[in-house]
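Session log. Operator J.P. requested a structure for one protein chain; no other inputs attached. Running the standard single-chain path with token output.
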Amino acid sequence: MTIFVTGGAGFIGANFILEWLAKNQESVVNLDQLTYAGNLENLDRVNDDRRHVFVRGDIRDRALVERLLAEHRPRAIINFAAESHVDRSIDGPEAFVQTNVVGTFHLLESARVYWGKLENETKTAFRFLHISTDEVYGSLGFNDAPFTETTPYAPNSPYSASKAASDHLVRAYHQTYGLPTLTTNCSNNYGPYQFPEKLIPLMIHNALAHKPMPLYGDGMNVRDWLFVGDHCAAIRCVLEAGQPGEVYNISGFNEKTNLEIVRTICELLDEMQPDPAGSYTRFMTYVRDRPGHDRRYAIDARKICRELGWAPLETFETGIARTVRWYLDNRGWVERVVSGDYQNWVAQNYGGR
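Structure written below.
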């Protein structure tokens, strides 16, 4: 048995593959274009595992995808492939439309052709699992109830709009063609191998480099934080027992302001790698807010807990401690992924703030 994973060299996809191969005997075909955030070093632990088949390629390449599907005959497609950073979507939205919308469309078409040729139990058991985000639901006030699976979509950035469009395509392919799709909408992930443009690894990296730790606006924007290992476990649950056509929200039940996150990182760094010059909090810097910055996200994940028996194992306190320790123990990984292009992007995004 085989599963077909797209975007498996990125942050969440790589963590998923590492855990999948540690917990299952099934092989993984991993298709990744290796854009700036895709990194094969994330998968070093499975370099010699014959169950991991890596192919460099674009999900928009229908001929390639259809050849791989015909050759490996997977029982499921899990689509992690996406452009995912809001700031980058503001500076260059076209890449997000191409990957998240056009790419998902072509992947769905390839899956529809492949699934249509399957027979009997193999066809019944096939699944197309699409990994999405809570950002498609828009922004909440501080007293609003959390997002549920029936919350109307209200994306506020090019990134979230492109993910919302891909979600609608996935739904349409189930409703129109009967393709057995599943969609998960997760809250903010954190953990090992996250590219240091995102809040938590960016703050760890900058603090250790004695650079400003930029906090947008007043630092009071709220996110729900989900440890990546818990997210991977939820995806496995949905793949195993989720009902075709359904949407499952996944969260860590950990609402925190950005200010709380950064202060916690500083406290952990002060404890794990003290700086003789003083607390890392001295590098915290407030910068001008980004356009369309959603004030609060919060997810009601009771559906997946109730129907599929999933629950997060990490509290925020245990998960963030594991994460900071990983980045301290893997400084070489960070330095290798922080290329000149990354430095240019940081200067462009934060320099004027």
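Operator note: The chain has 13 helices and twelve strands.
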